[in-house]
DNA sequence: CGGACCGTTCGAATAGCGGGAACAGGCTTT
DNA sequence: AAAGCCTGTTCCCGCTATTCGAACGGTCCG
């Protein structure tokens, strides 16, 4: 498990995914457009596009290529096979019904938080998150709950790798401040997010840990700042959340 | 738009996706396992795996590699950007609430049907379909509804490409029989599925067409055969469905 | 009618992919 | 303990397959 050994990547594969990324970002792109963006010969891009299209990974509409629904198949497969999904999903639905707010299940992967499932109550606001979204762990409640319950060396490594970019002016960007913050989260067992990712939005997040105590994901409740405050925010929601994550942890251990 | 011109695929990219496919199918695989399966040298697989892992597309857990949630990000992106999704989604939810059965939104891509969104009523059975699932168009109600409303040359081409494989003993496998069947669907505007994809499951599907009358997708209602029969199946559900698809078509035209 | 742009095809040169052999480490077996 | 066998990993070399640029054949626009 060598960490950062000098490994030479397969460049052809990289360009293939570069093309996919450009097509994704542009929400459909043409051959010359892609070639210009990536500074490749048109013929090269053409051959790649045709290869990906033959595999069904890109779809050609006229002269523009789009990403195909094969990625949806792959993605849903990943989600369904994840240990947390089956167990956490019903709990997330339950919490959404009880709190009438937006509830998310987030997992950690490669040092970032990934939203794998969300449910909303009747009166919940539409958050800006969506399924599959990747967010730096220090920027939101669920992420901080996860980060606080990782081994120290992993925490430091993640901070080294991604830094502490700000999402709003409330986002924690100072490393020492974050370390203290994480210590507090570790002590009480859950995390708050007060407009640190979206202005006007508060959230509470609690970690889901495995047998050895390491976080593998988290569940969070998010809602408008003027509704999530006072005892509801500091007492009631944490209680609900901890009850849910505790149950999830038990179910995880017996599956 | 040359159809089947002699184009040489980029083989390196193909092997990369072969590896991804093996990892997906095996639900996590090790280097030697993949190498054996694809008859490649261990060193080759290793280099590819490390490349994909560096890009975040594979995740390494110990010595086994898994597909990462990046595919979820790509996949959800594809779905959200699809014209039909935003428009059809609320209608699908509505139909599920009204009928108390499983309702699916299916789109056509590359000649196959892709389930992009599903909603279920309280009493609906769990169908065997899942988001992202790809099904041959002749095998189910939504697919037949789409197939019937494609240009003739596309229909023939799709049948040529994929054949008429059976899912149950009721699946239509005779080409002439299917042609007649499609003609009937075209006349009345919607399709039935009586245990043609899953034994014990019936369904009704209606196409969503664009301005020129070509189907771009379909919506279907599915449920147990003993519940979906008689006038409910032949009158009420088709009415509901046509009302919904009609509305979707109008909304599509004005977006 | 002509120019400018597109996607597409072709051939040729070389960069980089793939393979095999050797290494290091962990686990089981003797 | 130690020998054996299985990993994943690294290295380097040869040959193939990728890349590029130029030329072709469309189509759209002026």
TrEMBL record, chains A, B:
User: Which SUPFAM superfamilies does the protein's record reference?
Assistant: GAF domain-like (SSF55781), Winged helix' DNA-binding domain (SSF46785)
- Residues in HTH iclR-type domain copies: 10-69
One of the protein's GO biological processes? negative regulation of DNA-templated transcription
Q: Which PROSITE patterns match?
A: HTH_ICLR (PS51077), ICLR_ED (PS51078)
Q: Where is the IclR-ED domain?
A: 70-254
Keywords, alphabetical: DNA-binding, Transcription, Transcription regulation
Q: Where is the signal peptide?
A: none
Q: Name one GO molecular function term.
A: DNA-binding transcription factor activity
Q: What InterPro entries would the database entry show?
A: GAF-like_dom_sf, HTH_MetabolicPath_Reg, Tscrpt_reg_IclR_C, Tscrpt_reg_IclR_N, WH-like_DNA-bd_sf, WH_DNA-bd_sf
Q: Name one Pfam family in it.
A: HTH_IclR
PANTHER family in the record: HELIX-TURN-HELIX TRANSCRIPTIONAL REGULATOR, ICLR FAMILY, HTH-TYPE TRANSCRIPTIONAL REGULATOR RV1719
- How is this protein named in the record? DNA-binding transcriptional regulator, IclR family
